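Lab notebook page, bench 4
Experiment: in silico fold of construct C2
Operator: M.H.
Input chain length: 105 residues
Purpose: comparison with the prior construct
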Amino acid sequence: MIDDPLKLFVVEYSMRQNSVCRSTLANVIENNLNNVRRGHAYEYVPIGLFRSREDADIFITHFNHTLAEQAQFEFHSRDWRRVADVIETLLKPQAILLSNLEDQK
């Protein structure tokens, strides 16, 4: 069970920079609201939701070290479906996925 959803960790991806960042859900929401207030588009999109910072960091490490080269190739070819497949494959072990939430019911 998730006690406080705002303490979950979000990993976001920048298509322009081909990079990821990690933050709490509360910070992501706050940043998005601030960007809306200023009329700024935010280039990072949430791609994964994690129960702990450690889980998010494990994902980022795997992204950066094991599949980043493949993702970089796909990034430069602009094959966004393939980039999404690379990210989705990495998310399966520890991310909070809809299928995982269904299993907890």
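Observations: The longest strand covers residues 44-50. The chain is about 55% helix and 20% strand.
Next step: discuss at group meeting.
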